[in-house]
Amino acid sequence: MTIGVVTFPGSLDDGDAARAVRVAGGDAVRLWHGDADLRGVDAVVLPGGFSYGDYLRCGAIARFAPIMEPLIRAAHGGMPVLGICNGFQVLCEAHLLPGALVRNDHRKFVCRDQRLRIENASTAWTSSYQKDQEIVIPLKNGEGGYVADEATLDRLETDGRVVARYLDVNPNGSYRDIAGVTNERGNVVGLMPHPEHAVEELTGPGTDGLGFFASVLESLVAA
Amino acid sequence: MTVDTVETATKTPEQSQPWAELGLKADEYERIRDILGRRPTSSELAMYSVMWSEHCSYKSSKVHLRRFGELQQETPVGKLLAGIGENAGVIDVGHGYAVTFKAESHNHPSYVEPYQGAATGVGGIVRDILAMGARPIGVMDSLRFGPLDAPDTARVLPGVVAGVGGYGNCLGLPNIGGEVVFDSTYSGNPLVNALCVGVMRHEDLHLAKASGAGNKVILYGARTGGDGIGGVSVLASETFESSGPAKRPSVQVGDPFMEKLLIECTLELFAAGVVAGIQDLGGAGLSCATSELASAGDGGMHVELDRVPLRDSTLAPEEILMSESQERMMAVVEPADVERFMEICAKWDVQADVIGEVNESGRLTIEWRGETVVDVPPRTVAHEGPVYQRPYERPGWLDELQAAASSSLPRPSSGDELRSTLLRMVASPNLCSRAWVTDQYDRYVLGNTVLAQPEDAGVLRLDDDSGLGIALSVDANGRYAKLDPYAGAQLALAEAYRNVAVTGAKPVAVTDCLNFGSPEDPGVMWQFAEAVRGLADGCQKLGTPVTGGNVSLYNQTGDTAILPTPVVGVLGVLDDVARRIPSGFRTPGHIIYLLGDTADEFGGSEWAHVVHSHLGGLPPAVDLDAERELAEILHSASRDGLVSAAHDVSDGGVAQALVESVLRHGVGARVWVPDGLDPFVFLFSESTARAVVAVPHPEEVRFTGMCEARRFPHTRIGVIDDEGTLEVQGQFSIGFDELRRAHEQTLPSALGE
What we know:
The complex is a heterodimer of chains A (223) and B (753). Chain A is an alpha/beta fold. Chain A has a single domain, classed as Rossmann fold (3-Layer(aba) Sandwich), CATH 3.40.50.880. Chain A is 22% helix and 26% strand. In chain A, strands 2-1-3-4-11-10-9-6-7 form a nine-stranded mixed beta sheet, sandwiched between helices. Chain A has a two-stranded antiparallel ribbon with strand order 5-8. In chain A, helix 1 links the parallel strand 1 and strand 2. In chain B, 36% of the residues lie in helices and 23% in strands. In chain B, the strands form five sheets. In chain B, strands 1-2-3-4-7-5-6 form a seven-stranded mixed beta sheet. A seven-stranded mixed beta sheet of chain B has the order 9-11-8-12-10-13-14. In chain B, strands 24-26-23-27-25-28-29 form a seven-stranded mixed beta sheet. In chain B, strand 28 and strand 29 form a beta hairpin. The longest helix of chain B has 21 residues. Chain B is globular. At the A-B interface, helix 1 and strand 6 of A face helix 8 and helix 10 of B.
């Protein structure tokens, strides 16, 4: 199973995402923002970072990168796509996910080991978790506050599309403590915290993040 | 706009020139005229003024720094592949890997404009590491501010921290440690020292020189603008006067996104083998890059300044030469490789322009609109600047200061008094939790961070297969150095060495960032000379060469100099990072040992500072043999799995070490005062060459046997439990809620959540 990891200018966690794919047992394929070609991959990760310097608005320019055209098409066709942090911002800008990410309410960058509750364990990226399972993975962002209008938030709740919620503290002012959401079909997931930084005991707060990558590999095998 | 060409300079020898405003002294200006045999053009004057500034030329410090060059150019694990004099020293760490690390000050810009000053400090040191051919893999920051409750600290500190974080986070470099220290002498002159570490394969080493006539000189990266003009001469090499004009235009403005592209682009250029020589553009901008490259090469260089891409088309040639616009690099490229070079730059959207050519003229010539504006021997600009034998003298006030010993200060004696002293100490600005600062830094990016703050040292994995890794720590204690600069520098070295050693790493090499007051003050110059002598002697004894460093002088406000602050960085090597020792207690039942001897030493201590606002006497005794022995014990213990935690004992003594170790994972500890030791001395003395370790019960016999065989003092002082308290038997007990509140609330309450 091959999982593509896109590198935009300013992507930072692309190497980590590729490593996480390998640790989970998949093959990572590096994709370049300027190529309108997914190189036959089975799923795609949009990694964290500051694509195009986060100029204008986080993710606003990346959304128009040549790679996004086939990616958006594939996502509509059901291909699993995970956007982490900046990747989540890109997915919102590309309207593959509802809502937007805004500057943290306390106006500072924050890096911490964050406890989350997995609320939807049936997406392509969370099926290896149990519903309501609590995990700890790193969170690091300056603009990670998830916002959407009330109607959208209500719909997300009703449809079970809130993938993960912050526990203990809300680190960035996200509405309803939302840390991640999915699309209606459950193949596209956006997540503000960083599962790719929690795949080895040696370098992370634990290995709780591995499940995201294991999930998609399992779902691809099953498909 | 009339341009001052070499031709007009020759014809108008008497024209007055603004050499004083550019920071040159009268004799220096005369010397330039002697070298050239005429008056300099305004462009030449600009180049000499920035390159002969204290910051670039090390003219006051050079005669002392020679001591570092006399140290053995070998580390305990291998040769130095590049030493002092290059952008950064390069150390062989085995398995074909080499590591380069260096610290640099950005003190004055960070006072004027905290965010940009600190951000561009990080950017500059990262480019230094990149220019050696290495991939930058981590940063650290050593920060000093005025008192935490001073109004200006609330302006400077948040801006500096946001700048360090904003730039480093956007570059994708983990911040793995550093220092935050408060003292009133840093009020008008904060210290911002940024360190970067990089890794490369041996064969990837690149040096800054322009060789090979006909090779092209390429400037790539950001366009050149009017920012940072005279940064090194006007800002970094002068004392601040409160009444002077605003210096904000001398501060550079950073763009970390551009720097990230520059890093990836440069590494791809190296990999493609199209770089014959390279230099980063930092202080003194193009003046520095062109003259240093030409001077270190074997011939001359011709530059067409019109080809430099500008952000502001109205810039004059001297401004272009002095601009410190960030995110620029200069490469020397063989003609056949230019096309490939340009392709790689285009891939990364990095602008690149051929601006000149290497030749055999022996001169650096620069042309502007068809006329020659610079024609100089490059060595006179870059490497043969003025050298001063500044007068230095032991200051008269030192005897009195050293005589004012701390022994007469009232000490706590009852259990209750010790308890409240401990709570007051752990909440004090220099000892409280740094989370408010470090939570703004990304420590996870790149996926190789094995240990980061609040650990004693940062540990990074270099190689996934073998587990080869490095440990890094930066330390200084300005109060110790004020009491005795020779010992103070050695104490900084000893602490950084020990911080690396407690992770189980073998300490191998040293870098420094020497922050002092005005070299024109003989007392300050004496402090500097003594600190250099102390550091060099210490490195000799520990077998760790100084691989590079940075000097920052003129750190004073009016006549008041900062505490002499020699910041020392030590690099260690771990054969397998999986064997690293963390600092936090984790497992109930493990036995707590104190390694090393505890004496009654409170001169310059945190206790004397916090409780009595006292600074006097002598700092704790230095014992580098004991430090070395301690490091070997910890290295062996890590290799054989004999300890589960190890924490350095330094500022705040054993009490501080215990508090940090128990709070890390929220377990408890029951501790007893060793026979024959006064409880206060046991808890708060700052005797050196000590560490607190946790030993699993089954390993206790082996562990103590090893210490005995090495005749190293080791005292059983307690046991880890799960009671959620820190208990000192017969004295006091403190629950974690109270302890945590004391330790963690100080910075958030002072600076806002």
